[in-house]
Amino acid sequence: MTFFKIRAVQTRAIVSFVGACGLAGVASGVLSQSANAASVLEGAFTEEQAVRGQTLYYQHCLQCHGETMAGVDKAPALAGPQFGSTWNNAPLAALVERIQTMPPDKPASLTREQSVDILTYILWYNGLPLGEQELDTSTEVLARMTFQTPAP
Ligand code: HEC
Is residue 136 included in any domain, yes or no? Predict the structure, then answer.
């Protein structure tokens, strides 16, 4: 019941975030055309992908990691300085592999595509910008790109 209400609010938050960044998004879209972003700081995933990830996060992760990714009980935060100090400069491929160990009682139950979608929602929640191209699910691309947090 409240589940859907919360989700609607969160989705709106993404939409207004895009609104605020619309101009920058258009400008970088013109520059990068169809090339994949080189860095998560340059818009490495789309809004649609992050919204897909949000749905999966609400189904499979929310109960332990929390609506604001602050962590609940023993489950650590998935956003903020603590998470950044663990994952900054780590390849996204490593983070996807970590996500695939989750939930702890059902490891490897998500497909790789689903894990990458959830990753993009985590990236968005850590303040990283939306882009024009979906984040690629190939290990090759994800091994080259590292987790970064935007400068405060
Ligand atoms: C039943 C509770 C539970 C669920 C559900 C769950 N997690 Fe976790 N998660 C944990 C716990 C506890 C840890 C730390 C200990 C461990 O690794 O098992 C953790 C650790 C993590 C880490 C490592 C964090 C760090 O600081 O390095 C990531 C990333 C993560 N979870 C993502 C997810 C994602 C994504 C989902 C949904 C697909 C999910 N978790 C579902 C309990 C949970």
Answer: yes
Domain holding 130, by residue range, is 2-144
| CA 78 to centroid of ligand 1, rounded, Å | 8
Residue 149 maps to a domain: no
Residue (of 117, 76, 88) closest to 100 by Cα position: 117
User: Is residue 94 lining ligand 1, measured as CB closer than 6 Å?
Assistant: no
**What is the model's pTM?**
0.83
pLDDT tens for each residue of 76-113: 999 999 999 999 999 999 999 999 999 999 999 999 99
pLDDT of 9 reads 47
- Find the 33 Cα to ligand 1 centroid distance in Å: 35
Closest to 129 (Cα-Cα) out of 28, 1, 6: 28
152, part of any domain: no
The CATH number given to whatever domain includes residue 29 is: 1.10.760.10
CA dist list (Å): 33 to 26, 29, 37, 145: 10, 5, 10, 19
* Pocket of ligand 1 contains residue 130 by CB under 6 Å: no
In a domain, 151, yes or no: no
